[in-house]
Predict the 3D structure of the following.
Amino acid sequence: DIDKCARRFSNDFINANHLFGLSEKTNNFVVFNAASLFETFFEWHSPYGLTPKGRKRQKVFSLASALTLTWSIVFSHTFKTKSPKCWSNRFLGNVWGGFGIVFIAIYTAKLAAFMVEVAETQTASNVQGLIDDCRKMSQCSIGVVANTSDEEYIKKFFTSTLYTHMQHVSSYAHGIESLRKRSITYLLMDHSMARYYLTREVFKSIRISGDNFGAFGLSLGFSKFDTDLKHNITNILLSYVDKGIIQRLHDDWYVYENCEMKRLNENRELSIDRFIGVFILLGAGMIIGFITLLLEWITFKYAIPYWRKRQWPGWMFCSQ
C-alpha cells in the first residue's frame, strides 16, 4: 500500500511538474522574486514604510518579509509575516493577490485537463465498442473509403447499426485529414495503410484504436503444375527475410513514433502566452506602484505640512 501511494504521489507530482517547461519555470521564478524586490523597494523608499525611517517603527518590512508574503500567496498558504504599511506596497500586494488567484485558477484548470488526458482514454477496441460509442454520442460518423472491403464488411454484418453512421471519404488521406479536423469520429481502414499514414502523420494527433477486425493478409497464387516458379519465389522471399530486407522495408514504411507519448510531451506545457494577461496586470501594478510612491512623497513633502498648518482634522485619513 505504501508503495502504491508513493507511486501515485510520484505520478501526480510528475504530471503537475510537467505543465511548465524550463523556460516557464525560470520566468516564474524571476517574476515571483522581482515582485518581492519591488515590494521591498516601495516599502523602504516610502516615507510611510515599515522601516527605521518610518514614524515609531520598531519592526521592519525586509526582503524576507516580502518573499514570504509573495510566495505564500502563490501557493495559497498563510504565514505570520509583517504586513506593508505604505500605499504603493499595499496596492502592489493587492495586485499580487489578484495575480496569484488568476495564476492558480489557470494552472488548476490546465492541470485538471492535463491529468484527464494523461489518464487512460476510453477508446473502442473492437466493432462492438464502436457500436457502443456511437450509441452514447449525439453525433457519430465513421469514415470509410467507398467500395472497399471495410465498407463491404460493415454493410454485410452491421447493416442496422454501424452502417447507418457511415460517411464516405474520397481516400485514406482525406479520411486522416477529416479525423484531424474532427469532421468524422472514426476511420475504418486497412491496418497496414493505417500504420503507413501514422508514420507520416506530422501532428501526431491520430492513433490506431483497438484490435483488428475481419481477416487480413496477402497471398500468392500459383498453378499447381508450376512448382519450379513456386520454389523460386519461396526462396527469394526467404532470402529477403534472411538478409534483413523485409525488416528494413518494415522500418522504412511502418515504424513510427509513439503518438500518445509525443502528444503528451508536446504542446502540453503552460507557456507564457497563457499567462500574458496576468503578467500584464502585474506589470501595470508595478508601474502604478511607482506612481503611487511618487504621490506619497509629494503628499509627504508638500501636502502634509500644508495640512498641518491648516490644522484641519478631516485630513487624518491620509495619516499613517
